[in-house]
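@channel sequence for tomorrow's demo:
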Amino acid sequence: MSMRSTVTGQPRIDNDKIFTFPQGIPGFEEYTTFKIFHKDDDAVTAYWLQSCESPAVTFTLIDPTEYDLNYDLYLSDSEQETLQATDPMDIGIFLMLIKPGNDSQLQQTQLGANISGPLVLNVPQQLGLQKVLGKAKLNVNIVAH
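structure tokens (generated this afternoon):
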């Protein structure tokens, strides 16, 4: 499958970039197939997750480790089955960026990250899910400059 992105203008996405979210993403359950791609520049690595069913449904993702956030996630039996996870080294964790609403404490020009709903991807199997955490357990590494 090769697709053109209407959001980023990226011309081709190969089959190895297509991920299936069997249950969809909370709030977007009707979309189960997404392509993932990224842009690397000197400042930040950004990833995009774009619905194959509706390209206007696109999420911006970041790798939490680039911001010294480390997750200790435990997958339930059903989550492991969904992801077909057998090796923890196959799992990638990403955070969705969010824009603030009018009731947010963030300024309109700022972005936040959904730390209580990381995306968990089994990269070799090209499967994903959003793990909604009741209470996020994060290890934050603070480095003095």
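heads up for whoever presents: Confidence is low (pLDDT under 50) at residues 1-6.
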